[in-house]
Amino acid sequence: MNSKQSDRRRFLKEGAVLAGLAAGAIRSASGQGPMSASGRTPESEIPENFRFFNERSRFENSVRKLPSAGESGASKCPLQDLHGIITPSDLHFVAAYGMNPPDIAPREHRLLIHGLVHRPLIFTLEELKRLPSVSRIHLIECVTNSYMFRKRTVHLPELRNRLTARDIHGNTSCSEWTGVPLSLLLQEAGVKNEASWIVAEGAEPVKHARSIPLNKVMDDVIVAYAQNGEAIRRPNGYPLKLLVPGFEGAFNIKWLRRIKVVDQPYLTNVDVSHKVNLRPDGKMRWYNFEMPPKSVITRPSGEQRLPSRGFYEITGLAWSGGGTIRRVEVSTDGGRNWKDAQLQEPVLRIAHTRFRFPWNWDGGEAVLQSRCTDDRGVVQPTLAELGKIWGVNFDWEYWKIASETGYNGEHFNVIQPWKVTREGTVLDAMYDAWL
């Protein structure tokens, strides 16, 4: 055991924080003291001349994109409008799948840890906040990010070349998360030797649950109660969210209520039906955990316009679910030549990394692309390279079959081309590469 773990364990044993929590003890909501559940004044009671304190300028209109008919229930983050690497909490992408987020009173919420442990424990939110905490910047990305919207272009020609960075890549966001390492809670509960997985479950009506390997849990998983310095927003999991850095987005259980320590994956409904990697040939893979390295130019990008020739700073985001971005290259000629972009500090593990590249546009047609490499040496592929990895040919017949079989494009991380026309309009050029 290292010194950090030893110090945390000593805190738990010597303090009174966990008194009464061992083996089924449940603290009543009325026993949590006089602390208010919310220190905010209701908006209806805020004087009119003070309401501007909580508003953006009326000239700023960046919003999440709500799902269209036939799409999954995700509202996409406007990546093209952002700066730096932190996503404002109210612009963080949300995957709801047609379900309203539960409205949970924090004083009544409980987190149960049970299963293959020596001491089952139940925590209130306030008790979790009394424990040693960490704050870390991490991204979350939906497993079908960068692909799902494209599937519709096969049958909706009017959408071709008219997609924005938000439309295509907006199912990812990056925040600072604060909470308690799950390893700390499991150490207090006492994990039995035969344990090798956990099953984490949310409090929403469908009880969304995922099986997660114990070695990942003991490494960097957080039971988070804060996002970007405030309580987690309700659509993102208030009051508790399981943050599983780098894993597919669905592993980050929102409205976390229960963690069961087990000796094998439980093959929950989501494990076996919604998040398997189904290929058009009928084969599938389960438990593809880490999201692969990916980058996207966000300015200039789809549906934007360059008003005149001259200097522009190309900028965008790169990330990897398996580590840290070490290099981003940019091409302005459709991939014939590549040059290194500048990585903006901080460059963090499993977080968005901002890159920048100077470019003088001569007024001619151009195709802008970026590709990234992470610290494991994994390079973001072209469409043709990914086809070789998957053993498929990305042609019209492939996409037709993919649409008909419901393939959602899990782990689709190909290089994104943006075409700049002579008029300065920026268009999605990926569809051109497909056919």
Polypeptide structure, described:
With 435 residues, this protein is an alpha+beta fold. The chain has 2 domains: 3-30 and 65-85 and 93-137 and 177-280, Alpha-Beta Complex (Sulfite Oxidase, Chain A, domain 2), CATH 3.90.420.10; 294-380 and 415-434, Immunoglobulin-like. Helices cover 17% and strands 27% of the residues. The chain contains 10 helices and 23 strands. The strands form 6 sheets. It has a 5-stranded mixed sheet. Strands 5, 6, 9, 10 and 11 form a 5-stranded antiparallel sheet that branches. Strand 22 (418-420) and strand 23 (426-428) form a beta hairpin. The protein starts with a helix and ends with a helix.
Strand-helix topology:
Elements: H1 3-14, E1 74-75, E2 94-95, E3 110-115, E4 121-124, H2 125-129, E5 134-141, H3 148-153, H4 165-169, E6 172-181, H5 182-189, E7 197-202, E8 209-213, H6 214-220, E9 222-227, E10 230-231, E11 241-243, E12 256-262, H7 269-274, E13 277-278, E14 284-285, E15 294-299, E16 310-319, E17 325-331, E18 339-340, E19 342-343, E20 353-361, E21 366-374, H8 383-390, H9 396-405, E22 418-420, E23 426-428, H10 430-434
Parallel strand pairs: 3-12
Antiparallel strand pairs: 1-2, 3-4, 5-6, 6-9, 7-8, 7-12, 9-10, 9-11, 13-14, 15-16, 16-20, 17-18, 17-21, 19-20, 21-22, 22-23
Helix pairs in contact: 5-6
How is this structure best summarized?
With 435 residues, this protein is of the alpha+beta class. The protein has helices at 3-14, 125-129, 148-153, 165-169, 182-189, 214-220, 269-274, 383-390, 396-405, 430-434, and strands at 74-75, 94-95, 110-115, 121-124, 134-141, 172-181, 197-202, 209-213, 222-227, 230-231, 241-243, 256-262, 277-278, 284-285, 294-299, 310-319, 325-331, 339-340, 342-343, 353-361, 366-374, 418-420, 426-428. It has two domains: 3-30 and 65-85 and 93-137 and 177-280, Oxidoreductase, molybdopterin-binding domain (Sulfite Oxidase, Chain A, domain 2); 294-380 and 415-434, Immunoglobulin-like.
